[in-house]
Design goal:
Number of helices: 6
Distance between the termini: 39 Å
Number of strands: 2
Oligomer: single chain
Structural class: mainly alpha
Order of helices and strands: HEHHEHHH
Radius of gyration: 14 Å
Helix content: 55-70%
Number of domains: 1
């Protein structure tokens, strides 16, 4: 299967699981994946983790657009909870360089 097709299926599964978690839009807010979907796909993190309640937050549209696909300290915390210590360490180092 081509990578683009795998990505499409992965994103669709994450979106479906996110909806199943009853995290619907509240007027004026969007659902944000703390560990981005693109990161999960790139590093083969199970869609169930990316769509989990602990990885979702409400942000205004402006905040969500500003965050983009960047990793945040909360995302690093999730990686550690999920057992991805090596990835968390690398992302932590990247954050330190940006500051």
């Amino acid at each position: 299967m081509k990578r683009t097709e795998r990505r499409r299926r992965y994103y669709a599964l994450v979106d479906k699981l996110t909806e199943e978690n009853k995290f619907n839009r509240i007027y004026g807010y969007t659902v944000d994946h703390i560990v981005p979907k693109s990161f999960g796909f790139k590093y083969d993190i199970p869609a169930e983790l990316i769509a989990s309640i602990e990885n979702l937050q409400f942000l205004t549209l402006a905040e969500n657009v500003a965050k983009g696909t960047r990793m945040t300290p909360r995302g690093i915390e999730n990686l550690l909870k999920w057992g991805y210590e090596d990835m968390a360490f690398v992302e932590q180092q990247k954050l330190k360089r940006v500051r």
